[in-house]
Structures are given as C-alpha cells and as structure tokens.
Amino acid sequence: MPIETSIPIHCISQQEFHEIDARMMAHAFDIQNEFGRLLDEVIYKKALAERCILDGMPARREVGIRVRHKSFAKEYFIDLLLCDSTVIEAKTARETLAAHRGQGINYLLLAGTKHGSLVNFRPPRVARHFLSTRLTHDIRRTFETTESNWPSYEAFTKLRDSMIELGRDIGLGLDLPLYKEAISHLMQSTRHLVPLKDGSSLVGHHEMTLLTPDAGLAVKALNETSDFKVHLHRLLVLTPLSGIAWINLKLGEVRFEHLRR
Fold this sequence. Notes:
single chain; alpha+beta; 2 domains; 6-stranded mixed beta sheet; 7 helices; 12 strands
C-alpha cells in the first residue's frame, strides 16, 4: 500500500465525530482555564490526551503514517487520534493560518478519514476549526494530463512519467512538499545556487532545483497559474538556464509546461 498507518484508522459519521469533538473541546477549554495560554504546545497535547483517556475516549499521540512510492518514503505523525477515528491537530499559534488548516486536511487524506479538528490554545479563548473532506483515495488518483512545449528529451520524459506514476499511486491533493521531495528523489535532482544577472551585472544567487544542468524544475499546486507563470519567466530570464520544467498539480489535472527563455 502506498499509504500505511501505524494503526487501523476508522472513518466515522459526522454525528459520531461531533459527539467526540464536543467532549474533547470541553477538556481543551478546561485545560486553558487552568494552565493559561502561554505554555509550549507539547504540554497541551499531553494534557488533552490524558484527560480524554480519563473520559473514556482512547487517545493516541504521534500516530505514524508512512507514504511509500518505489524507493521513496516519507513519515508523518498525527498529533492526537481519538477513538481510532478522529484527527486532532493542536497548535499554539498567535492566529490560525491557512497553512495550519491545510496540514490538518493533509492528515485526513493520509488517514483516509473525513473529519477532524484544529485546536489552537494560544488565543485568549481556545480556537477550534473543523476539518473535513469528501475526497477519497480513488478520487485523488483520477486525473487528466496536459502538456505545453514539453520536450521529448530523456530527462523530461522520465520526469513526466515519474510524476504520473506518483500521482496514480498516492493521489493528488496531499502536502506539496511531499511531491517535491518524491520527484527530487526519483529524478536525483539537487538544489543549486543559480547566478542571477541583470544584463552583465550580477544581482545575486537564487536557490533552484535543477532537472538538468541547463533546466530548472518547479513543482506547484495552483488553481490559478497565470500570475505565477509571468513571474517564473521573469526569474528565468535572469538566470543562465535555457528553460524551466514546470509541473502544476491540482485535483483532476497534472499540467506539464516547459518555459523557455
């Protein structure tokens, strides 16, 4: 299996989730009222797990999930799993950001479940954000491919085929760094400091992943790509590279585009 959980995780109904979530949040409010809101994240996680267990809800911390594809593997850890079904991500951030929600959704998709909560202990009152998804592994593995100016050279063909195989195996919609790390591993591509020149003047260096000595590699997950394409081309013309191989991942579509100078 491309995605393996360290324990079986069950998918439950929305009603069952809300019953578990309500009991968990009661403990979260009590913990903040007693401990305050300035402690380290790990203390809140430990206290929350202990109180849920005392309340009769099985609670497991740092539940492992491994993503495998060929020789590539990456580990993830869920902060707290209640009743072997409900994903809880605990934070101590000044404000809850989209990146935090994205991380929570990523764990739902990896776990193959639909409901969870993001709990932030740092605000004056505990902030909770529901996490939910209707995506399944089969839905995420279904996509079309499009190409624009994609070369037929060996490195580009291998890159395209490797990305398609990866998407068909683990599905789309997961954490973007996962795909970047997997593709870099499969292609054995590395990061380099590329010189940037405005005319004959060196303006600095920019760290880039290179597919070949003469071609950069960019992997993104954008719904709207036109603005990024403009700025990616502006970056390209400052470099000595002949082009950038750009892969854009979004649910239902993988686009391969080669930007040339």
